[in-house]
Recover the amino acids of this structure.
């Protein structure tokens, strides 16, 4: 039971999903987490066509005001848009934009996440999709840096 609880905390999976993943992985926590992530990414793909009418425009200022970014992240409901996890995702995306200066949303999604080179921004978004059960999309962004045009 403790392993199920720990796996749930680490992955955001439900009790039954955590239990099944642990059984499938023979009790190995790392393998179970990978199984859950794989299933979560599959769930995320199935939600990608659902309409997104809510979300948030999030702004971040970096380096004492020397650079900033703004991102529009959309989701299906206002309920998800108000969660701390959604807010954290928006912040992480704006940090990525300030640091890596992507040319487009497509490029941003393919970039390695600056805090964890083992995943991309797209995978970061899909992780939250699997936790919330809602479609989440990065719609657009802007980046500003003093002295740049």
């Amino acid at each position: 039971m403790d392993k199920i609880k720990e796996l749930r905390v680490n992955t955001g999976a439900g009790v039954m999903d955590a239990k099944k993943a642990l059984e499938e992985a023979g009790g190995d926590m790392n393998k179970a987490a990978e199984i859950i992530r794989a299933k979560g990414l599959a769930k995320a793909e199935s939600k990608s066509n659902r309409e997104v009418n809510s979300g948030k425009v999030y702004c971040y200022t970096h380096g004492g005001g020397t650079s900033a970014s703004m991102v529009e992240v959309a989701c299906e409901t206002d309920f998800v848009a108000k969660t701390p996890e959604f807010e954290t995702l928006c912040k992480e995306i704006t940090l990525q934009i300030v640091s890596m200066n992507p040319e487009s949303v497509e490029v941003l999604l393919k970039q390695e996440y600056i805090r964890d080179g083992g995943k991309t921004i797209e995978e970061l978004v899909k992780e939250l999709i699997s936790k919330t059960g809602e479609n989440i999309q990065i719609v657009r962004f802007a980046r500003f840096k003093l002295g740049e045009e």
Summary: Residues 2-47 form a domain with the Helicase, Ruva Protein; domain 3 fold (CATH 1.10.8.10). Residues 20 and 65 are 48 Å apart (CA to CA).
